[in-house]
Backbone:
């Protein structure tokens, strides 16, 4: 009879055109802002200008750290933290994709808690203060605007590490779909596949409950029609993609990610495949694999997605990648050995009733290529 | 393209058998607790014993105010506040139905902000401190465990007033469905109808957005099968009722309630009809009325409920009330005049595209009886 539900989402979410300006009074969370961005999208999208205009109008000084790249490492985190320290910043505004949002969270922690570099990957003590964070996502995949996670690349461990803390939930998330219009089509597609992956992995997770599954079904139901439209080359509703991605973020905030992410990380780390695309190519195989042991959950996923079998998802992903002109080079047997070892070492794969064997993982990689 | 979504839920929710004891460390929000309860259910359900055992084990002193009745007024709020003040309580544990949870929120405010009695119904200033609140619901209707509302009867205005503040969201909500086993069947049914009403009114609200509507559909989909089982006299899943009611609470936290609640209040105030039952008898007529102007939203509600037309909901409610042996005395024409005037004066009825005329409101009352 019991539900054993756990839900927490301390982030206040606003979406809609112009929400950055409309909610400006709400996101003035301190007296000196550190703005964290990537190389170009914050400027291209107009989001950085909007933010600066709001800060200027309220005479809140700010400094901008534009140094975050895809798959940020702790070197970038510490460089951003150094900038914040020189100006005594007391809140962080993250404008960008998942890499930027994730790095900003770690920066907010390193600054507020004076974290020594050698302790960075040891976990965030629950009592550590973290600067308040405003999250303005410029992609539609990460969900980081509503999660407690900061995914940072650990070169020593040759993978991405999940640095997380309840204090990492942004205080406010501002979703303006207009900012996505300048996003390259392939990034739009890759990040949407990442969001879909969050929702699907979340449903199977041992940490899932009735509510996180309902949220995941909502996210899948919102994302899939847009992915289908993308594949057909017709009008895509960016606000829906951004909304679906946010709801999928709420899901992984409760469940974490799983096998697809674990297997995707090596593809990104060793082969430079974008994170969302790496997840996307593995998704259909994963559904087929899970169908054997979790038939009814798989049914729910397929129903929410409007599909009758996993192969249809594979066909959709293939079409999407073809449109992008993406050539998928199948990993060699030697590579598969390394990828499988790396992904099975991650704790997230233990969040399922069935732990796949190394041979099964290799097969899943093969199915994606 | 835009979504104009707003979502906030600062309350951390736990459900499941034994969650009060399991999460005890998390809900020790102060050094001296005020426990607020109604007359009997906190003891009958075992919830009060569980809470006291946890407090005793951690040597947190507490005082209990057991004076909350249905439809509490500010006299009860001030009596509870007086008890808290004599012992210097710094957090509030509310154990009960909507009346208890709502009263506890106002008590937490009156104590922390020293609110003069003559200012009580003037609104809660945003800067007013409020003691942290632990909410343990013992019914499955209010949703108050995840809302910012405190509904208090104002005898001068002859209706219920909505006293609300963002600071009224409980810090933690603990949902143990086992506590519902001692709930009288009619209360279970009435409160479940209240929850259903929250979800349905929320969908039509002008404040609704894609996310609150998705949550409302989830709530309707969870509640309806249990109400049908209740009508059939078969096994009812209390955890599902509690979960559906909580999700419906998340909905009204975003949208507020609407016409059904506005029309239900006079039935409660003048005729003593339980709050949820008053909403329940009005629901099907309301669906029929809204169908004319909001056809597609009505379709979504009916689909989520597994119904093909509003009349089926009326039949379900009739069966449920018959089982309870509830006799519905139709209001007289004089009463209808008063009820209609009172309900149309409430601000909540303005949350729709179509404001009903007094004659339409009277017809809606007639349809319920």
Residues:
């Amino acid at each position: 009879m019991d539900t054993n539900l756990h839900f927490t989402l301390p982030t206040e979410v606003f979406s809609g055109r112009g929400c950055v300006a409309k909610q400006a009074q709400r996101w003035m969370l301190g007296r000196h802002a550190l703005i964290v961005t990537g190389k170009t999208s914050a400027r291209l999208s107009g989001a950085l200008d909007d933010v600066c205009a709001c800060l200027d109008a309220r005479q809140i000084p700010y400094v901008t750290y534009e140094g975050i790249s895809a798959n940020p490492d702790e070197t970038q985190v510490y460089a951003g933290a150094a900038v914040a320290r020189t100006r005594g910043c007391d809140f962080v505004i993250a404008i960008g994709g998942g890499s930027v949002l994730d790095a900003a969270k770690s920066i907010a922690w390193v600054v507020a808690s004076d974290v020594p570099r050698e302790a960075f990957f040891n976990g965030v003590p629950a009592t550590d203060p973290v600067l308040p964070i405003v999250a303005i996502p410029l992609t539609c995949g990460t969900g980081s605007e509503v999660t407690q996670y900061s995914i940072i690349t650990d070169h020593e461990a040759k993978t991405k590490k999940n640095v997380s803390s309840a204090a990492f939930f942004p205080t406010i998330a501002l979703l303006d779909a207009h900012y996505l219009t300048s996003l390259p089509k392939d990034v739009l597609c890759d990040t949407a596949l990442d969001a879909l992956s969050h929702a699907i992995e979340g449903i199977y997770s041992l940490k899932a409950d009735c509510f996180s599954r309902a949220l995941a079904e909502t996210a899948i139901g919102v994302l899939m029609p847009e992915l289908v439209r993308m594949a057909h080359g017709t009008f895509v509703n960016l606000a829906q993609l951004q909304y679906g991605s946010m709801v999928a973020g709420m899901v992984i905030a409760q469940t974490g990610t799983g096998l697809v992410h674990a297997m995707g990380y090596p593809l990104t780390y060793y082969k430079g495949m974008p994170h969302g695309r790496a997840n996307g190519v593995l998704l259909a195989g994963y559904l087929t694999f899970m169908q054997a042991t979790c038939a009814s959950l798989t049914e729910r996923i397929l129903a929410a997605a409007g599909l009758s079998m996993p192969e249809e998802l594979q066909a959709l992903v293939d079409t999407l990648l073809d449109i992008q002109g993406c050539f998928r080079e199948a990993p060699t047997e030697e590579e598969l050995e390394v990828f499988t070892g790396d992904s099975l070492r991650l704790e997230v794969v233990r969040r399922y009733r069935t732990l796949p064997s190394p041979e099964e993982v290799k097969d899943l990689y093969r199915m994606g290529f």
